[in-house]
Amino acid sequence: MILRPIIFGSMPRSRRLARAISRYQSNKIDLEALEDTYRKDLRKFLEYVYTNNIHRSSDGMYRWDDLFNPLATYMSLEVDGLRRFYDNNFFYRQPIFNKPIYYEEPKISKTMINDMRAIGLGDKLERVSLTFPGPLTLIMNSLVDEGLYTSKIKVAEEYVDKVLIKELTYAYREGVRHVDLHEPEIVFSKLTPEILDLYRRVAENFGGNIWVIIYFGYNSENIQLLRKLSEEKRIIPVVDLVTTKPPVEKVIGDLRGLREYGIGLLNSRNTKMENLRELRSVIERFEKESRDTEYIYITHNTNLEFLPEKIAFRKIKLLSRLLS
Amino acid sequence: MVLRELGVELPILPTTVIGSYPRPRWLRHIIRLYRAGRVDEKVLQESFDDAVYAVVREQEEAGVDIPSDGEMRRDEMVEYFAERIKGFKFYGPVRVWGNNFFNKPAVVSKLEYEKPIVVNEYLFLRKVSTRKVVKVTITGPYTITDWSYNEYYSSKEELAFELAKIINREIIELEKAGALFIQVDEPALTTHPDEMEWAVEAVNEVTRGVNIKLGLHVCYSNYELLSKYFDKLNFSQFALEFANRGFRDLEVLKRLGDKEIGFGVVDVHSRRIESVDEVVNALNKVFKYVDPERVYVNPDCGLKLLPREIARAKLEVMVRGVNIIREQLKRRGLEKIVMRG
Q: What average pLDDT does chain A have?
């Protein structure tokens, strides 16, 4: 069995970038200067990630305001007022599905790929993941016009068909091998056969790995459903071991038989640095009792963006030390 | 909890604010200069004082009966208290939404109350305002806990109770200084339903031994859940946001019992200025659930994110709406209430 450290999701937005965004919005700097700042932060993050031997990471999501934006705007959707993102003191703009999705081009992947090439890391595309909201999380955190869609699942289907597949097809062609679907909603809502079928469709349209990232809790029943699908498709579940502290033996049982899966061990919602010895003992239990598993990915439990920037970087370092 | 009359008479439907008010543009400029090291502490403090004069006058001119100091000295509701309680540390800002950040504190050692936190704010406000009653706002222990990192205490609950003791001491100091009306702000209170039982106990801890009027402000929250605890919470008034939710959920007020509502009638997240009719209609709606004698009127939440002229216009509309209803109530012989705590 091989243990690998990975990073997913959003990193804290730096003061420098925040200032640049604000100056761009008030016409004090041009787009080129803003782009330059985005890319400086991306380069700083990825260089740190590679220096610390992280197996794969997201692009830090520096261009995202929240999990749904700017994607909602790219889908030609309106966004409503601020809504709390689960139990966090963090808010997102709620997408409104009151007209059919119109998605002209794979803007998320194009932007990320261009950024990677612009900072001279085009050869590292296979180590960086594209991030999207999972279909379940998207529909459960959006407003849906019931006159237009007979059910929320119809929105999810349209999202997969018109957005995800288009993005993933382009991304794979350009060399991207990892896609992260953020699905915190799996903790709270039932994983229906329709949603599982959507994951299957996504996986069938992408030659690389689909990571289903689940955080803000643990839902054993849903994890077991996802495991069955993961056995047949290249879908890698990543689960949160911190928020509700599920019993380790229960998690091991739920994930048993999978070739690969991820466990979120570092707390991304607390500045306290974890004790490495304690974490290693948890990892050892997974190693000992998951003999059929080839890879266990060790990571943080949710977005690192919930931490101050310097602490987020320290946690990456800690993750690296944990497995060194 | 049995409410007592506190011997202070107010017009029926007393109008008030939740707390924050937009900082004048010049004050924001002075703060920037201070942070850049171009003006000293004395200039900054003088500017804060002047700003309090300006915004209290503005509230009073709009007709507000119970003004606040607009929280002119506070950048953020948790950060301000954490900076003044020993045991907190700041590692840097975290994003709350869009491009907006706050300095989320971390508890790194045992918390200690070193000296009064907002008593001087109250004393200055008392000097500036011409009104009988002014409002002082304090961030509650649960919200400070929920919006902080906990590196020291063994549980979130333990931290919340430690903070409750500190906030309680501060409220007692305010009472000694002459404050009559304190509002505890707990926007996070219903965020984790599984923690509500002990959260309510922690929030109640701040009221221990206090004999003045205490209100509790909870906004953008699950009021169905909150209302189940109206009776348990030792506060005489709940200041709640209703304009933003289109005056839905008013049924929860049936659970108020003898307690009062601080009724939010203007939306602080919208720049549209409500009409007087909207305020009148909102009040007529709330009277279906709460007698006028138990209604205070306020904006949904703090006004600080609005442009100043819009904040002021919203207060003026609020007061004009209240005055129309007061005329109607006068014909029923209802003109005054006695403040209760």
A: 96
Domain ranges of chain A: 2-12+44-322
Facing B99 at nearest CB: one of A22, A269, A311: A22
Pairwise CA distance, residues B27 & B71, whole Å: 12
Beta bridge partners of A209: A178
CATH topology of domain A2-12+44-322: TIM Barrel (3.20.20)
Residues of A with CB under 8 A from a CB of B: 12-13, 15, 18, 21-22, 25, 65-66, 81-82, 84, 87, 89-93, 269-272, 305-311
pLDDT digit string, tens, across residues B149-206: 999 999 999 999 999 999 999 999 999 999 999 999 999 999 999 999 999 999 999 9
Q: Please indicate whether, in this complex, the C-beta atoms of B151 and A272 are within 8 angstroms of each other.
A: yes
Its CATH architecture, for the domain B5-75+115-143+154-340, is Alpha-Beta Barrel (3.20)
The residues, any chain, with a CB within 8 Å of residue A181's CB and separated by 6 or more, are A132, A133, A134, A135, A199, A202, A210, A211, A212, A213
Find where tokens 């001119």 sit.
B61
Domain residue spans in chain B?
5-75+115-143+154-340
More confident residue, A213 or B221: A213
List the single residue in A with minimal CA-CA distance to B91.
Answer: A308
pTM: 0.92
Percent of chain B with pLDDT over 70: 100
Number of other CB atoms surrounding residue A221 within 10 Å? 11
B109 part of contact set with chain A, CB < 8 Å:
no
